[in-house]
Write a structure and sequence with these properties.
The protein is of the alpha/beta class. It has ten helices and 17 strands. The protein has a seven-stranded mixed sheet. Helix 5 runs antiparallel to helix 10, helix 6 runs parallel beside helix 8 and helix 8 packs across helix 10.
Length: 339
């Protein structure tokens, strides 16, 4: 089996998770790591015997790197992704693909010109509960989908402590992009009109210039309607960092998912209580597991076999188009049609 040389651009918590996944995937080697803070690149690279760069362009010039994970902040994707495509590297891009429709179009066009794979890491498509929901919809077990409620929220810890760059994005971009792609995938349908509402105050009062929460209504071509809730102000006493729920009602049945409060495992200590992560990124016997790792391994499989990824650059561009329309709707105070 040929070994695929991977490069990782961005060394935050999620970049480290990409590295752990590659390191525990047969036929893959972490060859290089890049970060503007070179000391951080050196620390992560040292764990895998990889090279460290302070400039991502040097990583892209490394002949030992065949493909890259781009795990930089939401607003720092376009230039890196275009340069990676020009360098002939296959690309796994963290969401969102970019924060404007025009930037997405440039990225997709460059990847097409270069003939490289471009996958956007909307990993919820590998979530076991959501995959079972998707399967039930495809089999017609609940009839025609009519309405969806999708909740994907974070503790206030995320914008105030976890992300130093929260003021440069929003919860709609950070997790709402996941939710939008998930609903599109579940319904197998496209959005034709959106209406958005957001409110600010709590986070801006703490010096973080980003909205507290969003409520988004998406109308689909089939007539189905989705309501998506994304909040960054859940209390830190919530039992899990992420709160995710989904309800999907059809003409012949319904599906209900609660991946946060499922109580498969409850943990209580003298100082804390919660539900440990069993789905997203648990480590089992030293191997990175969970659906977040499965999406990354899917990318590896596509690179090895020359397959089209399950989530393409076009999917990333559609999610961005919907979010931009929601932002337009919020500013205008009325629904916005998608062309």
């Amino acid at each position: 089996m040929k070994t695929i040389g991977m490069g990782i651009i961005g060394t935050g918590g999620w970049g480290a998770m990409h590295a752990r996944t590659y390191a525990t995937t047969p036929g893959v080697s972490v060859r290089a790591v890049a970060d503007m803070a070179k000391a951080r690149a050196e620390e992560l690279a040292g764990a895998y015997g990889a090279k460290a760069y302070g400039d991502y362009r040097d990583l892209l010039a490394d002949p030992d790197v065949e493909a890259v994970s781009v795990v930089t902040p939401d607003f720092a994707h376009e230039e890196i992704l275009i340069d990676a495509a020009k360098a002939g590297k296959h690309i796994l891009a963290e969401k969102p693909l970019a924060m404007t429709v025009e930037a997405c179009e440039r990225i997709v066009a460059e990847a097409d010109r270069a003939g490289v794979l471009l996958m956007v890491d909307f990993h919820a498509r590998w979530s076991p509960p959501l995959c079972k929901m998707h399967e039930a919809v495809r089999k017609g077990e609940i009839g025609e989908p009519r309405h969806v409620y999708y909740r994907l929220n974070d503790r206030i810890y995320v914008p105030t402590e976890m992300l130093s760059w929260a003021g440069g994005t929003t919860v709609l971009w950070f997790v709402g992009s996941h939710a939008i792609d998930t609903v599109r995938w579940l319904l197998g349908d496209e959005v034709c009109r959106v209406y958005g509402i957001s409110r600010s105050g709590l986070l801006s009062g703490r010096g973080i210039n980003t909205p507290d929460f969003y409520f988004s209504t998406l109308e689909f071509r089939s007539g189905a309607v989705a309501v998506i809730e994304n909040s960054w102000i859940l209390p830190n006493s919530a039992p899990n960092l992420v709160d995710v729920k989904c309800e999907l009602v059809g003409t012949k049945g319904a599906l209900y998912m609660d991946a946060t409060h499922n109580r498969a495992l409850e943990k209580y200590t003298e100082s804390d209580a919660g539900y440990p992560d069993l789905f997203v990124m648990p480590t089992i016997h030293g191997r990175q597991q969970g659906f977040a790792a499965e999406s990354i391994r899917h990318f590896v499989e596509c690179v090895r076999e020359g397959k089209t990824p399950m989530v393409t650059g076009a999917d990333g561009a559609i999610a961005t188009k919907i979010i931009c329309a929601l932002e337009e709707s919020i500013l205008a105070g009325k629904p916005v049609e998608l062309k």
